[in-house]
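re the bet — no i am not wrong, look at it urself. input seq straight from the record:
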Amino acid sequence: MNTKPTASHFIGGAYVEDKDGTPINVIYPATGETIATVYSATPAIIDQAIKAAQAAQKIWAAMSGTERGRVLRKAADIIRARNHELSVLETYDTGKPLQETLVADATSGADSIEYFGGLAGTLTGDHIPLGQSFAYTVREPLGVCVGIGAWNYPTQIACWKSAPALACGNAMIFKPSEMTPLCALKIAEIYMEAGAPAGLFNVVQGLGDVGASLVNDPRVDKVSLTGSVPTGKKVYAAAASQIKHVTMELGGKSPLIVFDDANIEDAISGAILGNFYSSGQICSNGTRVFVHKSIKEKFLARLKERTQTAIIGDPMDETTNFGPMVSKNQMEIAERYVAKGLEEGATLVYGGKRIERDGFYFEPTIFADVKDDMAIAREEIFGPVMCVLDFESDDEVIARANDTEFGLAAGIFTNDLTRAHRVIGQLEAGSCWINAYNLTPVEIPFGGVKSSGVGRENSKAAVEHYSQLKTVYVEMGHMESQF
């Protein structure tokens, strides 16, 4: 497959290049090879993108919701028809196994665009009777939205951000992560092919300075970021200085609680999915696995058995279910945290080392006897490192689960549904699961509390973050005043 894009940026319905920008090499994580080069956006490119978005947004907002929905649904159909091609590109971009990208990336992006395409024609206001007078509300777009993506799900994130934005009548400028710049360009092509006005969805590449320029530009009305908490704080502060709308989907150190009555196999499946899918590079991962003391040894023994069956290899081989990490730097971060865990006295049950082959492979890693104050239990690693902690009582584990600055996700496994709802009700997290983990259908809101974010993605809840209400009062009688 030719992974080299036509040009670095997609603006105003066409590819655009400006080699005065800083070159960014695209590395295939499975081999360490450079497979493409793009150039960071210059100020001229950023200005061109904003002007294109402003012009297209006026045309798009003037269309009916039904007309906008028709374009979005066509884009979703095109994505599904090209799922294999888009999935292969996603694997080159991220290193994730093709087995995974075929079902979890472009397909979930298509689901989002289809969902909001169906919703676009329903975005109406309310009539409010006030005796003989009345009022009504009108739902209006915000204007130009900036989406800043993370490197773990480049196709999905481009769709999750653009779908509600476009459904509400906005335009979007999307900046992918500099580590995974290829996939969003294909989504831009598809929107154009589906009938979107030129400039409605633009892609600009760049490092952090490009994101900062977009966030700080007064012509931008909304910023949606998926990224780390430190980056989120900077972006949030910059947006606040100009009273911009924001959605922040940030990091986590989420608890996954396994009670003594849980189905062990299901709970282990949840722990594996919540720690080793995408080589552990998922913000909502349940990386603090609290296991009831009475079943801890049984849980660990079976967890190790099943982890040993992981098929590690070429991500383009559809039998591979565990691939490389996204970069050498990310692999080294995982390596350093393993060293910290050992230094602090945690027990290494499995893994913990680089895999001797080309690329950035790191073993799925399990720590037991982890204490709440250890670095591996408090800090987001963003790699395949699972921490197993034991507990004895409900109140104890709830307090410990909540003892973190993060609040993105939480999950519990138990056959006692009364306990399930009682415990979930006390966990401080935005996205929760009972007897499941990390399932995110577009119909349900996704997002965090505390330092893990602001606002919600997906579902009808996202509409509130990409639109605003205008209220109109209509006086049917005479206007009176005090003199």
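see?? The chain has a mean pLDDT of 98. told u. also The CA atoms of residues 9 and 204 lie 5 Å apart. so pay up
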